[in-house]
Each structure stands twice: as structure tokens, then as C-alpha cells.
Amino acid sequence: MLIGVPKEIKTHENRVALLPSGVTELLRHGHQVMVQKDAGLGSGFPDDLYKKAGATIIDSADDIWEKAEMIMKVKEPIEQEYHLMRDGQIIFTYFHFAASQELTEAVKLSGAIAIAYETVEKLDGSLPLLIPMSEVAGRMATQEGAKYLERPMGGRGVLLGGIPGVRPGNVMVLGGGIVGVNAARMAAGLGANVTIYDISLPKLRYLDEVLPANITTMFSSTANIRNDIANADLVIGAVLIPGAKAPKLVTRDMLSLMKPGAVLVDVAIDQGGCFETSKATTHEHPTYVVDNVVHYCVANMPGAVPYTSTIGLTNVTLPYAVQIANKGWVKAIRENRELEFGLNIANGKIVYRDVAEAFDLEWTPLTKFLSSLN
């Protein structure tokens, strides 16, 4: 199979979908790899390393999209790439379709095969291709939140860890998954008072046992969030419903209860955001203010630490990419249930229910779709 790796063009997205070592592995299985010039440079992997690994360096992204049977990316195609997608072409990347009807319609119209990193799912319900970036984003959420609490950045001037004789900051983490736990651990490590919220009592019992003593667990309800948000210096939104829109846990009217200069960090922005006032931002312009509350809603947070993020991501995506390349996408998803969950749109049909329901579009059950391919 001919595999293409275009350079990411989303604002300040420096990650790359394949390491030079991944090129070597794909070539070992008999495949060919094209990498766009400077695609890995932002992550610390120059073209020479890809050439030594056996990749062909291509100047133009258009040429890669035109020739490649499978495109490997990090972020979803953006508007200027929509016309490059084509019928039958496999695109393996993060899509987060529920956040964009425009993207959903564009992929559907193209006839491309969209296999989404974020919905590849193991039988235990874990999301192996989302975990490493969730770990990065969770840790970054606290790091960025602490930064934007600084007065020169628009925050209220609170040091999360406090100092002797001065109380530490208060951090609310909404969601007890990978993002939330990593955010909470980082905040606790800085010395903040942290409360982590979730709707699963078994999960809260587990977290209560394993997390540091300065992290309190709390059942996630509108009443509890509304009651506690007035004391929060930093609120981190870390909820996830795989493939679906995130629930709005912090409403516009709750902002009036918050301290001026408090910070909201919405890690769920890729799935539409879990704060009612959230809108996607970029690393170039990461924040905005609503009702005196600073909002940080960067949709590709791990892109700011591309060396770490690229290695973490490609460690988990490469084995699946090899399976798809070796077997073709139909056989690969039939033989691997984890990849089956990753198929969102194919041949102009939406086969992932939550994506269709997000925009009230027609849904074709995957079993019915696969049987039609026989």
C-alpha cells in the first residue's frame, strides 16, 4: 500500500503522524511511504531521518493526497483540505466529527474511508489511541490554567500552590477519566486544593483510594458544580462521551458566581466543549474572556509539545496502521473489533451512530454496511 503523510496545517500544529522508525516498519511489511517536506520538522524529526528510513520526500501536499491509498494525519482535515479527499481513500487520523457538521458532510461527500483515532476502542471500553494525548492534554490543562491565572495573562493573580501562610488555589476537575486524573495529579503536585467530579461512584471510590490526599472526590451533579464553582480559581473540563458531543456542565449563568479572573480550561472542546460559553481557540490566540472569566479552549493542546506528543501518539497508532496497510481496511476491521469501532464514515455513509445523531443525519449500522460489501 502507498501511504502518505502530509504536513499538518492547523494553526500551530507541529505534530506528525509517523516517525522515521514507523517508516522503517511499514517498509519492512512491503509498503511505500511518502512524507511531505518538513512534515516532521516541528516535532524534531528532519527530512534526512525520513530519507534514511526509506521514505520518499514530496514537496506538495496535493501530490500526496492525490497518490496515497492511505493518508496518515494527526488532526482532522480542515477546509482547505476537503477537496483533496477522494473516493475510497483511507484517512487515519483524529476526526472528532461530532464537533463539526461541515467536516462530517465533507468526508461523507468525498466517499473517503474515515477511521478515527478517538473511537478505536478496546473490549474493556478504553480508547488506546486517545489515551496518550489525553495524558498530555490533562497535564497541560493544569499547566496552562496555572499560567493564565497569572495577572499579566488576565487571571486573578493566584499561585496554585500558595506559599506558607497563604492558602493554595482551588481547582475543580470535571471528569474522572484519563484527562481528569492527569490534570488532578498535576494540580495536586503543585500543592493546590483539588476536587475531581464524576458520575460513577465506583470510579470515585477508586480515585479516592489512589489519588493524593489533597484531592477530594465529588459526585458530578449540576447542584454540586453550581455550589462549588464560586470558590474555584481554575475549572478544568475533562468529560468525554466517545464520538458524541460533550455535555454542557458549566452554564453561562454559572459564570456570574465565579471570581473575576478565574480560569476555565475546556479539554473537551474537540467534542464541542463542556462549558456553554466555550468556543474553539488556537495556540496563536488561546484565550478570551466572558463575564470576567478567562476561557482557554485550544482544540489541539498537545500540539504545543510536539516532540513528546508525536512519540506518544505514534507509539500507539503504528500497529493499527500496519494492520490496515497489510490487510486493507475492510479485512482489518472485520478481524479487529477495536478498529471496527474506529470506522466512522465510509463510501458516503455514516456508520458511527453518535456522529449521525449529533447532526440528525442518516445512520447506517456497521453490520448492515459491512454485509453490503460482500
From TrEMBL:
Classification via SMART domains? AlaDh_PNT_C, AlaDh_PNT_N
Record-annotated active site: H96 (proton donor/acceptor), D270 (proton donor/acceptor)
Cellular component per GO, a single term: plasma membrane
- PROSITE patterns xrefs: ALADH_PNT_2
According to UniProt, the reaction catalysed is: L-alanine + NAD(+) + H2O = pyruvate + NH4(+) + NADH + H(+)
UniProt-listed SUPFAM superfamilies: Formate/glycerate dehydrogenase catalytic domain-like (SSF52283), NAD(P)-binding Rossmann-fold domains (SSF51735)
Residue intervals of the Alanine dehydrogenase/pyridine nucleotide transhydrogenase N-terminal domain: 4-137
Protein name stated in the entry: Alanine dehydrogenase
Q: Report the record's Gene Ontology biological process terms.
A: L-alanine catabolic process
- The residues covered by the Alanine dehydrogenase/pyridine nucleotide transhydrogenase NAD(H)-binding domain are 149-297
**Pfam families for the chain:** AlaDh_PNT_C, AlaDh_PNT_N
Q: Which family does it belong to?
A: Belongs to the AlaDH/PNT family.
Which Gene Ontology terms cover its molecular function? alanine dehydrogenase activity; nucleotide binding
Binding-site positions, NAD(+):
S134, D198, K203, S220, V239, L240, V267, A268, I269, D270, V298, A299, N300, M301
Protein EC: 1.4.1.1
Entries under Gene3D superfamilies matching the protein = NAD(P)-binding Rossmann-like Domain
Keywords tagged on the record: NAD, Nucleotide-binding, Oxidoreductase
Q: Which CDD domains match?
A: L-AlaDH
The positions annotated for binding substrate are R15, K75
The record's annotation in InterPro entries points to: Ala_DH (IPR008141), Ala_DH/PNT_CS2 (IPR008143), AlaDH/PNT_N (IPR007886), AlaDH/PNT_NAD(H)-bd (IPR007698), NAD(P)-bd_dom_sf (IPR036291)
